[in-house]
Amino acid sequence: MTVLLVALGGGTGASGRYLLARYVPAYKGFPAATFAANVIGCFLLGLFTGAALSTEMAALLATGFCGGLSTYSTFANENVGMAERRQTALSLIYIVVSLIVGLSAAWLGIQITD
């Protein structure tokens, strides 16, 4: 049963990430869609972590949905691409801003539900 909940949540989260990628354009080379997906995923995971979720709801929402929505592999690949195009400053900004905003979003989510 848990595997099905993770799959359902993951498929829904991945669909959300697809919609972000399709409708949120890059801004001056900055991958806004991936950034948005990861920050939203961090915030929601913070909310779900701070909430007293049942094992089933945690599997559906935290592991499944947040795991399907957020994307470390795309983040890494985008930074490699920036490095190959010699966009070092943009890559460093993306890395630092992603870490600061992502951690802050997770912290805020936990604070809201704690």
Task: Provide structural commentary.
Helices cover about 85% and strands about 0% of the residues. The protein has about 110 residues and is mainly alpha-helical. It has one domain. α1 packs antiparallel against α2, α2 packs antiparallel against α3 and α2 runs parallel beside α5. The longest helix is centred in the C-terminal third of the chain and has 26 residues. The chain starts with a helix and ends with a helix. InterPro entries: FluC.
List the helices and strands and how they pair.
Layout lengths: L1 H22 L8 H19 L4 H15 L2 H13 L3 H26 L1
GO biological process, one term: cellular detoxification of fluoride
Subcellular location: Cell membrane
Keywords: Cell membrane, Ion channel, Ion transport, Membrane, Metal-binding, Sodium, Transmembrane, Transmembrane helix, Transport
- The whole-number mean of residue pLDDT values reads 97
- Tell me about the largest β-sheet: none
Which spans have pLDDT < 50 for at least 5 consecutive residues?
A: none
Helix content: over 70%
Distance between the termini: 28 Å
Which quaternary structure do these chains form?
Answer: single chain
Q: Number of helical segments?
A: 5
Content of β-strand? under 5%
Order of helices and strands: HHHHH
CA-atom Rg in angstroms: 15 Å
Number of strands: 0
Choose one word for the global shape: globular
Please state the structural category.
Answer: mainly alpha
Number of domains: 1
